Amino acid sequence: MGEMSFVSDNQAGAHPKVLERLHNLSEGSAAGYGEDQWTAAAGLAVQQVFETDCAVFFISTGTAANALALSALSPSWGAIYCHNGAHICNDENTAVEFYTGGARLVGVTGLAGKPDVDTMRSHMEIATVHGVHNAKPAVISLSNVTESGTVYSASEIAPYRDLADAYGLHLHVDGARFANAVVSTGATPAALTWRAGVDCLSFGLTKNGGIAAEAVVIFNKALAEQFAYRCKRAGHLWSKHRFLAAQWLALLEDELWLKNARHANAMAQQLAEAFSRHSSIDLPWIVDANEIFPVIPEKIRACLRDGGLGFYDWPAQPDMTRFVTSFNTEAAAVDRAVALIAAN
Predict the structure, then answer these.
(1) 3-state SS, residue 336
(2) For position 221, what pLDDT does the model report?
(3) For the domain with range 16-255, which CATH number is right: 3.40.50.300, 3.40.50.620, 3.40.640.10, 3.90.190.20?
């Protein structure tokens, strides 16, 4: 029987096709530091995903991808506006501040993981009035999927682009679960990024079947001119770079990355339906992707854990929990979880 662990998609293993591609590319020798044919092929594959000529840099961790991306978008005296629950604010230590040389993260409140546009504008107005006495507005950073498990459509990104244009800012998206957002919305990757005015995407596939499969995708090519130097200076240029590229080649081939995300989202929907049917469990946020945040009374939480369910307690609200499904979540494990939820 499948393990009922829904703690995090970071705990999922690597997809067999990724391991197969890594094994195949380990034979023989190849040029180092990204000068190999597979890195070039993977970069082209990413460009094809986004239907445009963009700059692609493969990175091994999501934290580095976000921090390096933002270092290219913001000066050290800049302000980076995001939701106050965003990963860059709460889960990446001071990586953004370190790589930018001191840029300030400004957390903005908003429902379901999406910062309120009017509140964000008021922060920018105050900063502009204060001039050099305040951090200069530089970047808006959104998470798609958000830290509440919700997803932005292209039309929902538009007001942030308008705000960025009004103040001369860049627009960044943290896409650690970008695949899940794509399949949830049914939009193309292009529609959710550069066509919606996004300048830069931190594109993650580590949670979606990879091992160290992150990328910084820069749609505004002028912002990419110095980026290779940033990667090298930060220690994020792999000598055996083909092993990063191999993961992307495997996951992008035949749209495996989308198939993986589609499965994870479908498993989450089954769990969400089970929670929604329970009279004592509340789902305060819509389940758009592969994360569910049910509010579960303590006694029921204890019974679920005693029954073998693995999940996080989540601090956003009293009694809130987090369940995350992944590309290798087994349908049988979800069925058992659904039965356990109904029994308690």
Answers:
(1) helix
(2) 87
(3) 3.40.640.10
- What is the mean pLDDT of the segment spanning 195-205? 98
256-343 classified as CATH 3.90.1150.10:
yes
Residue whose token pair is 């939820």? 341
Per-residue model confidence as pLDDT tens digits over 233-250: 999 999 999 999 999 999
User: Once rounded to an integer, what is the mean pLDDT over residues 151-166?
Assistant: 98
CA–CA dist 272, 224 (Å, integer): 41
Q: ∠ at Cα 325 (213, 250), nearest 5°?
A: 30
Residue-wise DSSP of 189-248: TTTTTGGGT--EEEEE-GGGT-SS-EEEEESSGGGGTTHHHHHHHTT---TTTHHHHHHH
Res 170 pLDDT > 60: yes
pLDDT per residue over 268-289, tens digit each?
999 999 999 999 999 999 999 9
b/e for 315-344, b at 16 or more Cβ within 10 A? eeeeebbbbbbbbbbeeebbebbbebbeeb
What one-letter code names the amino acid at 110?
G
**Residue spans per domain, the chain:** 16-255, 256-343
> 271: how many CB neighbours lie within 10 A of its CB?
24
